[in-house]
Amino acid sequence: MMDEFKIPEKVITNIKGIAIPKPANDQNTDDILPARYMKEITFKKMGEYLYFDERFKEGETVEEHPMNDEKYKGATILIAGANYGCGSSREHAPQALHRFGINAVIAGSFAEIFAGNCASLGLVGIIVPTEKITQLAEYVKQNPSTEFDIDLAQKVIRYGEHVVEFDMLEGRRQAFLNGLWDAMAILQKNEEKIKETAAGLPYINFK
Amino acid sequence: MQLAITLRRHKMSKGTLYDKIWENHIVGKLPTGQTQIFVGRHMMHEVTSPQAFEMLRERGLNAKHPELTFAVTDHVIPTDDCSRPFKDEQAELMTKTIEDNTKEFGITYFGSDSGKQGVCHVIYPELGLICPGQLVVCGDSHTCTYGAFGVLAFGIGTTQVSHVLATQTMAMDKLKVRCVKFNGILSEGVTAKDLALYMIKKTGVEGGVGFAYEFSGDVVDNMSMEERMTLCNLVVEGGARSGYVNPDKTTFQYLKDKHYAPKEDFEKAVEYWESIASDEDAEYDDILSIDVSQVKPMVTWGVNPGQAIAIDEKIPEPDDFTDKKKEEAEDALEYIGLEGGIEVQGTPVDVVFIGSCTNGRLSDLEATAKILKGKKVSVKTLVVPGSEAVKRHAEQIGLDKIFVDAGAEWRHPGCSMCLGMNPDKLEGTQRSASTSNRNFKGRQGSPIGRTHLMSPITAAATAIEGKITDPRKYLEEESL
Questions:
Q1: What are the extents of the domains in chain A?
Q2: Which pLDDT band, with edges at 50, 70 and 90, does A41 fall under?
Q3: Alpha-carbon gap, residue A207 to B263, rounded angstroms
């Protein structure tokens, strides 16, 4: 059943690259993308505004900020703490991450709406226990050029000599593996069933 | 084990309103294992829609059910001078864009000339668009507000907005259901806002992740619809995506005369609405009981809604916490410019903001007016009605005069100072007392601005004294 519905050009099996350590808990979407940038009507420039108010203060670049730090330039993976992406539902936040170059976030846990938004963009979100997040972040700070390999099929993260298991909602994992994270096509398929469901809802036609 | 707690979708809940509405809206299982659900009502605003309409255009698609879709401009609209074009070019473009998009796709848009404009989560309920048993989405996290009506309502992202526009469905995973019972005798001066902040302090900002909340108990039964909306509005600040109150006579009474609510079919509708409530023997994934007699007026001291205390408590010290929480407390205190171990009462503020989708309704303004009547504010105070209807009604009963006589600014409806997308912003390190829902760093428009969340009466008392103040002293005076 899965193969029928594969979208080959959108399949995501592995995310490879170096990682940025930012292990604070409860990082919210106002931090990730300040509200004033949501006044743009396209997502095109969101990558420029990522964590803007943390990275740039009064016109000065905060050199030590992990997103500004030369050591992590070109990173494709972010290591974050628990409850990542809490607060506002703004998709502008994962858009900013993705357009900045991040293809996967390893977090202690994700806020619900944010997790769904990441998946909609093909941005992979995976979970490891918070003690592991602390370990990973420390390791990366000591070894910034470490190459990570997030293997969605095997459900492991490989780095250096290490192999760490991760977790994620199974439906999302399947969506990445089959290219169905872009759900529009599969949602459009079921026209008859959609009509049936609508017909069974009395409130649609209450006068 | 942490992983299991966060991700386990083991559905134990049965017979709850959540289960019933979920079942009614299932279209089918998707190849990924997620569920495709039908969306009964799609509410929109100007911030999370432009890219979604563009996505439809790129794919050559139309809106599938424009008649189930409604839109408004609320986040960017100025609350002092809303004449067009707006001085802010981006705000003007954003507003023009939603006007053009809704016209092109055949969607009802409540513009400023309609008499119905306002904050989305204020206008849609007052128009009677939200009725029990619906599944409602919006590209906004505070969509959970509508749960007050016994609906399954939750926030979604812009790409999901495009899915709903194109197919009237979306992909979702079912949530667990936590029953939150508020019982006991509510003390004077304690409002729905305080109960919500108390609950989030108890659970933590992450405590509700993976859950929908059902609110019940005597206290909730006795709440008005507006109080229920305040309560449901804040569930997302505690991590829950959705929160609701079972529909009852209060709900039906509210809906009876509302513009879009059923008229001819009202009795039939009431029957349907009654059937959707949780069964007597409903089963839940978790139960949280809160004794409200313990609750006092609340105020946040830190940089997230969970960092809150009672008005007469001392701000915690970092040493009161362990591990990461200790670092977080230190960081929060540094940002907010306060010291642990001192009373939060008496902290001077620069601005007071009364409004937002949390506390911008008529009853919030009435409560504010009771405190401000015959008094003067000593700091800049914005009173922002949640909608044109709220504004009209407030003016009919003379509330505006009370606010203006007190020296406060009576504004036009909009999201205002909640989130820094319109001219109502903090400047520099200004400190605000705010009836909104988030006190994150930089939330109210200045990257170094400070926000303290509280109820409307606490904010009103604070406005009079120019510092964070216990509203109960003004309630005593009132009753003399």
A1: 3-205
A2: very high
A3: 6
How many angstroms from the chain centroid is the CA of residue B214? 16
- Residue B205 DSSP SS3: coil
Measured distance CA(B437)–CA(B452) in Å, rounded = 10
Instruction: List, for residues B47-100, the tens digit of each pLDDT value.
Output: 999 999 999 999 999 999 999 999 999 999 999 999 999 999 999 999 999 999
> In this complex, do A87 and B440 lie within 8 Å of one another by their Cβ atoms?
yes
User: What is the per-residue pLDDT across B16-32, written as a single tens digit (0 to 9) for each?
Assistant: 999 999 999 999 999 98
Task: State the complex-level ipTM.
Answer: 0.96
The second-level CATH assignment, the architecture, of B2-288 is: 2-Layer Sandwich (3.30)
Nearest CA in chain B to A172: B32
The answer to whether the CB of B241 falls within 8 A of the CB of B212 is yes
| Angle between the N-to-C axes of helices B50-58 and B158-167, in degrees from 0 to 180, rounded to the nearest 10 | 50
B38–A198: do the CB atoms touch at under 8 Å?
yes
Residue A75 identity (one-letter amino acid): A
Domain A3-205 has CATH 3.20.19.10: yes
Q: How far apart are CA B442 and CA B419, in angstroms?
A: 9
Whose tokens are 């994150």? That residue is B440
B163 closest CB neighbour out of A108, A187, A197: A187
Q: Domain B298-478 in CATH: superfamily?
A: Aconitase, domain 3 (3.30.499.10)
Could you tell me where the DSSP H helices lie in chain A? 29-32, 52-55, 92-100, 112-121, 130-142, 170-178, 184-188, 191-199
B382: number of CA atoms within 13 Å, CB side?
A: 30
Residues in Cβ contact with B226 at an 8 Å cutoff, skipping those fewer than 6 apart: B361, B362, B363, B364
Is A86–B6 a contact, with Cβ atoms under 8 angstroms apart? no
Place B477 in a pLDDT band, splitting at 50, 70 and 90.
Answer: low
Token pair for A56: 């740039």
- Full-model pTM: 0.97
Query: Å from A184 to nearest chain B CA?
Result: 6
**Closest C-alpha to A89, from B434, B241, B50:** B241
Give the three-class secondary structure for A25.
Answer: coil
How large is the angle between the packed helices A112-121 and A170-178, nearest 10 degrees?
Answer: 10
Tokens of residue B367, six digits: 């409560």
